[in-house]
Amino acid sequence: MGLEAWYTDGSDEDQRKPHRLNPNQPVSLAELNKLGVFHWKLNADIHETDPELEQIRKDQGYSYMDIITIHKDKLPNYEDKLKMFFEEHLHLDDEVRYILDGRAYFDVRDEEERWIRIAMAKGDLITLPAGIYHRFTLDETNYTKAMRLFVGNPVWKAYNRPADEFDIRRKYVASLQGS
Ligand code: KMT
Ligand code: NI
């Protein structure tokens, strides 16, 4: 099963709303792949023993994992963190997230700087490439539980836009030219 994604209306009000254009302008998985975004659908109910997840972790080298619950009663500094997650930023490494419960949105910029909203639900594993500008928000259900995967020791440092001078950003931008 695919992932649902769409171009947003660009409005700044209530980040938790879908912000679809009217008519909706969907974005296909193939288009996301061109931006370096990849997706797997897994059975989150068996995440502790899932051989498919094990295989992905082995193939991609995701040696590290932890689980974050994003809910006002569960996450310390909930409001501040949500604010940080929704600031447009990039990382020097891939961002890999597997939704175990609830829902959330990842927004990524396309090659023309338009925001694409990716609707993530239980069972969706996504990888955002190092250097892509993105942001994260809960939806109107206000809850998600996600596995964070990482190659080696995790580095969560986010560089808010503008962060165009990093090698990894230049490399990412160059990777879009050929596609
Ligand atoms: C990030 O860097 O965008 C995040 O870690 C998002 C929240 S984790 C589900
Ligand atoms: Ni991020």
Blueprint of the fold:
Layout: E1 4-7, H1 29-34, E2 38-41, H2 51-60, E3 64-70, H3 78-85, E4 89-90, E5 95-109, E6 115-121, E7 124-128, E8 134-137, E9 144-150, E10 159-160, H4 167-177
Antiparallel strand pairs: 1-6, 2-7, 3-9, 4-10, 5-6, 5-7, 5-8, 5-9
4-(methylsulfanyl)-2-oxobutanoic acid (KMT) binds next to strand 5.
What does this structure look like?
- With 179 residues, this protein is an alpha+beta fold.
- The protein has a single domain (11-178), classed as Jelly Rolls, CATH 2.60.120.
- The protein has four helices and ten strands.
- The longest helix is centred in the C-terminal third of the chain and has 11 residues, at 167-177.
- The site of nickel (II) ion (NI) has 5 residues, from loops.
- Residues 89, 91, 95, 134, 158 line the site of nickel (II) ion (NI).
Question: What does this entry show, briefly?
Answer:
The chain is of the alpha+beta class and 179 residues long. The chain is built from four helices and ten strands, in the order E-H-E-H-E-H-E-E-E-E-E-E-E-H.
Q: How much helicity do the residues have? A: 10-25%
Q: What is the total tally of β strands?
A: 10
Ligand inventory: 4-(methylsulfanyl)-2-oxobutanoic acid, nickel (II) ion
Mean pLDDT: 97
What do we call the CATH topology? Jelly Rolls
Secondary-structure element pattern, one letter each = EHEHEHEEEEEEEH
Alpha plus pi helix count: 4
Overall CATH class: Mainly Beta
Decide which structural class fits the backbone. alpha+beta
The outline comes out as: globular
Q: Biggest β-sheet: count, sense, barrel?
A: 8 strands, antiparallel
Strand content: 25-35%
Q: Please, what is the CATH homologous superfamily?
A: Jelly Rolls
CATH architectural group: Sandwich
Q: What distance lies between the first and last C-alpha atoms, to the nearest angstrom?
A: 24 Å
Outline the low-pLDDT stretches: none
Radius of gyration: 16 Å
Give the number of domains: 1
